[in-house]
Amino acid sequence: MSPRLPPLNAVRAFAAAARHLSFTRAALELHVTHGAISRQIKTLEAFLGVDLFERKTRQVHLTAAGHQFHAQAGPALDQIGEAAQSLRARTPSRAVRVNVRPTFAVRWLIPRLPGFVAKHPDIELQMMTSTLAPDQAAEAFDLAIRRSTKGWPQAMQIRPFLEDEVLVVGSPALFAHRPVTDPQSLASHVLLLSKSRGNDWSNWKKHVNAPGLEPASCLQFEHLHFVLQAAVDGLGFALAPTTLIAHDIASGRLTCPLPELRMALSRHYFGLAPDATPETQCFVQWLMEEMKTAR
Known about the structure:
The protein is of the alpha/beta class. The chain is 43% helix and 19% strand.
């Protein structure tokens, strides 16, 4: 009969804590809480009947039993990982890893994904959101979408994607209460700003020849997604890229009181990995079809 195995999750927690000599760093590595690591190690100690760590204020050290167990359990976990990886490497992947900014994911891509999933239920989409340039991405990806042609890995194929403009938007109730008929009317409203698009307001004022225009007050948010949600909730007006507000305009959650006062923005591009799989090419074809319907 094979010997009874300890709980493998507890062994993983122990191995990470033993490597780092820190429950906190082990928790970060395994994406769990400090308390979860502590509980798993107590479970393992109870199973083995020995203390694996000597716990002191703000630090831990392996006991003699802990050193012995780590010397054997660590390589065993590595061997399990290598065995799994060797099998996964033989299995063709049906996944497409897509790297996009969070607001673009929420406001443009995700609302359209049901159509792709319905057509291609066998392709697994893995959405990776980041505000970093693609050449600084922490994880590998098959396709990325960004506004600029800068900051891409050299091997990637960069192709033009969506053209874009910025418009003044707000909730219908907001503009019904205080109508906006020209740029000067915005002086009685609250401006909603995002740190990620901090220059849009000053650039738009110059574009419409109203450089001295000032809103009643400002509310600033970390990301444009929060700005657009605040606009939907009637907190003020925002300058929003047309690519990100199509569903809100169509549903009546947002309205544009000055549709003729548009300012062009840099267009979106997508980058394709040089070894793009047929599944990734399929996703690209769908993106291009969606681009045509978005015009």
